[in-house]
Design a protein that fits this description.
Length: 636
């Protein structure tokens, strides 16, 4: 073998993944787009393969991204929904991402775009295998700006006030905030900024294998498009935005051609979930599929996907076999000869599909979760839905020009659809095919056992915890009041009972999650507790712990009084703490109220903590009952 040839043969292929946001199944020219064109994506399809049965794991941002990068159902890695700017969780450090897998094989790695798998440093891309990161940590609508583009102020009230909880939208480079997105004009720069960085990355790494991940912030609302594409489509702004994304794809194609990397690069394009239809003309289309984002119907989970690898993927082919984002990681592992992650994953190698191998059909079935709920399962042509409620886009008038319309809460029963004859899921054929219903139910049982299912109250055996920042961990503490008598003058809410009557003296302190079973909640009421230690004993310190998470209507107490008594009748006030004026705080916080008591003896300890009572007028829950959350009264 000639050494030069050998070196050539050994070069591992570059991998480029372009992942758009909320782009519908029909929002690419070759998938039937109307009102705008996508010449570059269409060319990619002509030179590669177009998938028509390609799924994301869940029709929502964070869950979908977790699956793409780990090869797992989102439920397995504990990432649900769309993480908010005050989320304390993110992708667990032990999960292996595509970037980490390829890095082991010497790849240069970069992400330019939206991450959305945890915005705290420990969860950011640089800690998950990426050498470079530039982009938004979460969705571009998580900002203190209203739908008209007007930045909110402290004077804004009512519904608008909810958005005031969002911090200013940051642009992160590496691990640091380097800029802010303050206006709709700022939004319009994002696609171009990501693209320029992507092209420069290819320029710099043309001589070595690289992994480039470009998860565009667009076409998630609020839409932003640069001047060069404003007014380009007849559809309107949404069409303009997709045309700019298509331009971005074209710039990538050009860069690969410039360096003769077309045969050395696997290029994958897909969307993270279906269109957000209640935004009307600012949303795309999933035609001819049913429903859209946030549902388990095809319009939510089936997305456009095009793969091009010149010389390896046959040009101009269409693949109608089932495949999914979770299959990308194991497929890449097979291509580059990297070992699979040591922890179990769900994806399978779909290279035989990509190479158009005859009769190849590696994916037997697919589970459609939303959060913890197993909503549907597909095997072959059949898709079975399990009874559940969901936000429907039918029977409601959508919004327009950046403003959302309402949802219509809908319910589905046990329903079977034949996707081969009825891709629009219009005709329930469960009654005609009881054997198939049974077969799919058996399959679903396996998923419930493995991954759990909130619809049937099942806990999965093999679910891994998501990453947690643990500002505060659920933990045990030893102290003198453990399991002593405690008397509450106002009852705790049965919704947040923690361990019940003894929750405040059970030695368990709460974690960052208000709903972790260790916080006792008082709805609108004060906390007034008397702990009886049994005997008069020397006391050194009394601590009482509270949580604040205003987003879920939990506030710190306004006043805390700590008193002690020998006889349970006469109490001496030891400490009185009045909190400063109630102010908006978008981050959860913990506060221990501590009283030090040198040389004091007592049998009874009394804590009075005054609830804010009702949510203040600047809060989205204005007028509603505020919550007070306490985890433990610690007596030393
Ligand atoms: Ca999305
Ligand atoms: Ca406790």
């Amino acid at each position: 073998m000639i050494p030069g040839c050998r070196k050539e043969a050994e070069r591992l292929p570059n991998v480029v993944i372009i992942f758009t946001d909320d782009q519908g199944y029909a929002d690419v020219g070759c998938y039937g787009a109307e009102g705008f064109t996508t010449p570059n994506l269409d060319r990619m399809a002509e030179e590669g393969m177009r998938f028509t049965s390609f799924y994301v794991s869940q029709a929502v941002c964070s869950a979908s991204r977790a699956s793409l990068l780990t090869g797992c159902y989102a439920e397995r890695v504990g990432i649900r929904g769309a993480l908010m700017p005050w989320a304390e969780n993110g992708l667990h450090p032990d999960e292996e991402t595509i970037a980490e897998l390829l890095k082991k094989k010497g790849y240069a790695t970069a992400i330019f775009g939206k991450w959305h798998l945890g915005h705290h440093k420990e969860f950011l891309p640089m800690q998950h295998g990426f050498d470079e990161y530039f982009g938004l940590p979460y969705s571009n609508d998580m900002w203190p700006v209203d739908y008209s583009g007007h930045p909110l102020t402290e004077e804004d009230r009512g519904e608008k006030a909810g958005k005031l909880f969002y911090p200013v939208l940051p642009i992160i480079e590496g691990n640091k905030k380097v800029a802010e997105i303050l206006t709709l004009d700022d939004q319009s720069t994002l696609t171009t900024q990501y693209t320029e960085r992507a092209v420069r990355f290819i320029d710099r790494n043309k001589d070595r294998p690289f992994f480039l991940y470009v998860p565009h912030s667009m076409a998630h609302v609020p839409l932003g498009v640069s001047d060069k594409f404003k007014g380009m489509s007849t559809q309107g702004m949404y069409g303009d935005v997709i045309m700019e994304i298509d331009w971005s794809v074209g710039e990538t194609l050009k860069a690969l051609k410039r360096y003769d990397l077309e045969e050395k690069t696997l290029l994958i394009f897909a969307s993270d979930n279906g269109p957000w239809l209640n935004f009307g003309n600012h949303a795309g289309s999933a035609y001819p599929l049913r429903e859209a984002k946030g549902t388990a119907w095809e319009g939510g989970v089936r997305v456009p996907c095009i793969m091009r690898w010149t010389g390896r993927i046959p040009a101009g082919t269409i693949c109608d076999k089932m495949a999914a984002t979770i299959d990308v990681l194991p497929t890449l592992a097979a291509i580059v000869g990297a070992p699979l992650p040591k922890i179990p994953i769900d994806g399978i190698n779909i290279l035989p599909l990509m190479e158009a191998e005859e009769d190849a059909n590696p994916r037997d079935h697919f589970f459609f979760y939303y959060g913890r709920a197993l909503r549907a399962v597909r095997k072959g042509r059949w898709k079975l839905f399990f009874p559940h409620g969901f936000n429907s886009y039918r029977g409601v008038v959508p919004g327009a020009d950046g403003f959302p319309g309402p949802y219509n809460f809908a319910q589905t029963g046990l329903e079977l659809y034949d996707l081969e004859r009825d891709v629009g899921e219009t005709l329930d054929v469960a009654v005609q095919h009881p054997d198939i219903v049974r077969e799919l139910q058996d399959l679903a049982e396996k998923a419930r056992d493995d991954l759990g299912d909130s619809l049937t109250g099942r806990v999965g055996k093999n679910v891994r915890e998501g990453g947690m920042r643990w500002l505060h961990k659920k933990q045990k503490v030893q102290h003198l009041a453990l399991n002593k008598t405690i008397d509450l003058s106002m009852p705790f809410s049965p919704m947040y009972a923690a361990s019940g009557d003894l929750a405040l003296v059970d030695g368990i302190r709460g974690s960052t999650f208000h709903n972790d079973g260790s916080w006792q909640g008082f709805e609108g009421d004060d906390l007034e507790a008397i702990v009886d230690l049994g005997d008069v004993i020397p006391l050194k310190r009394i601590t009482c712990g509270f949580l604040e998470n205003q987003y879920v209507w939990i506030f710190l107490p306004q006043v805390v009084e700590i008193s002690i008594s020998r006889d349970g009748k006469t109490f001496d006030l030891i400490q009185h703490t009045r909190d400063k004026a109630l102010v908006r705080n978008s981050q959860p916080q913990f506060k221990d109220y501590v009283a030090d008591l040198p040389d004091m003896r007592a049998r009874y300890v009394r804590i009075k903590a005054r609830n804010v009572g009702i949510c203040p007028d600047w809060h989205p829950g204005a007028g509603g009952k505020a919550w007070l959350f306490c985890d433990e009264i610690i007596i030393e």
